[in-house]
Model the fold of this input.
Amino acid sequence: MNPLAISPDTNFEPADLMGGLYGDGMIVCKAAFSRQWVSQLRQDVDILFGEAKRQPGGALNRGPNRFYVEVHPERISGFVDLVTHPWVEAVCNSVLGPEYRIVEAGFDVPGPGAANQPWHRDLEMPQVTASTRRLNSLAFNLTTVDVTEAMGPLEIAPGTQWDDLSKSGDATGMFPPKSWYPRYEARAQRKMPQMGDISARSALTIHRGTANRSSQSRPVFVLGVDAPDATNAERHDLQVTRTFWNRLPPAVRDHLTCRVVDALEPIVQAHAIEGLKMGE
Done:
């Protein structure tokens, strides 16, 4: 299967990629993968989600009927296709530098009945970002469905990756007070990606999942990538077997922060976000 729906020799301008992530805080590559490739990803996600729900602590609660699951890269049949996609590589090199590190693989599943999340960012702002205005991590999202308004699309407030929450009264540095919500609601953009689209965003950009009023789940794959000075790998437990590691292209191994094991072990998820469990 040819996964690419765009020309592999497409040139992506670093100024455009950086301008979007340092400006709005989110950029998109439309139709980056074929729909057939995404259908296979959805099958993988459905299998892994079923397994995670049967494993204690396998699916983290991110709000009513909303879950997050970290996965082993080799359980995703298209993992190498994703991390070597020319747009993904161009974004990582442009924003995070040539020594970027892949530290997270997982997926979010907002199911039917998922409620609005509170406005939040996924991480506390690193000191380097607060003091120098440099982004040192990115989250790539890849939808497995054609998103509709009823399915609870992601809503972001562009430009808010620079908001200083240190004076908001929230000890985690991730949740602005409700008195700040009017500003986010005034700036809000709902994202309606289609199968094959990839987005990249700063996890610091204020956002929320909205209520899923449909009868369908909206699984989205998540790839977390760090600059060399970021520490997000500490929240995750990326593992690959020695057999899989030896099969990986050197260009992938060079960027993967993981444990190489003889047999895959259950993932102990450390990136629980307590403030999301109850919804808005």
Notes: The domain at 23-274 is CATH 2.60.120.620 (Jelly Rolls). The chain has a mean pLDDT of 92.
